[in-house]
Amino acid sequence: MHTNRGILFGCCLAIAVSLYAAGAQQEAPRKVRVVIVDGQNNHDWRSTTPFMKRVLEESGRFEVDVSSYLRPGDKPGRVPTIPFPPDLSKYDVVLSNYNGGPWPAEFQKEFESRLREGKIGLVIVHAANNAFGNWQEYNRMIGLGWRNPKQGDRIYLNDKGELVRLPSGKGDGSGHRYTGEFTVVIRDADHPITRGLPREWRHTRDELYDNLRGPAENLHILATAFSKGTGVHEPIVWTVSYGQGRVFHTPLGHDLNGMRCIGFITILRRGTEWAATGQVTIPVPDNFPTADKTSAVKD
After folding, report:
1. For 31-277, CATH number?
2. Please, are residues 100 and 45 in contact by the beta-carbon 8 Å criterion?
3. How far is the CA of 37 from the CAs of 67, 120, 195, 205, 262, in angstroms?
4. Could you tell me if 115 and 243 are in contact, meaning their C-beta atoms sit under 8 angstroms apart?
5. pLDDT digit string (tens) for 115-128?
6. Which string of DSSP letters, residue by residue, matches 222-278?
7. What's the whole-model pTM score?
């Protein structure tokens, strides 16, 4: 009798342990699958891609592959790559560090479709918004890009925090009329990407893009920066809804100096997670920059 009770207790214990282990496995979130597309850019993608891959993976939230679209004869980057074009069905989000020739037409169409249907997200960093000026759907995806005055509306905020929309054909084309340290001002503190960030934080030396142009459809500005070159508050972090797809866009990150900022690293991580999942679980680090002081990683 005691033997049967012992066997029964042992079986129950084994089942309980198995159920607990299964539950623990279910609770652990699957890592977000990211593919960085690079290979052509007027910026140093060979150093910035490895950096972004590293800081994403160091968060513990992401698995990152790199796919380089090289021109014939070009040297590859510094990290192992997968073939281009990547199989988009294997990823949750594309991070573009690309500014070069057109992607193959079939890949463009597949990307448009998957993003529109919400099957994949998109992250745009700095010069990636220079690319594909004649690709209409890409312009809609990114909202604003480096374009001439006739290639879309210009968006900025005045001193009252009011949004100003300058029609296509009026004003200047895109540029970076100020380069240096500047203050990033959060305009929506309730969005998952910016929730918990300081209202203002000092960014390390970087190019401050201005007069960006585009359709600016379904665009939501999360943060701006005052440009001494234009005298207005330029959009610096925003999102775009493209169909069911989520796009996170920041013109920050001209080079490693700009990317080493803890502010940049934090919004890159949080923006990438949001573009992929619609949620943000990555915390704001204790060493986040303040309104008066920058904060950056040394490596």
Report:
1. 3.40.50.880
2. no
3. 5, 14, 28, 25, 23
4. yes
5. 999 999 999 999 99
6. EEEEE-TTTSSEEEEEEEEEETTEEEEEE---SSHHHHTBHHHHHHHHHHHHHHHHS
7. 0.91
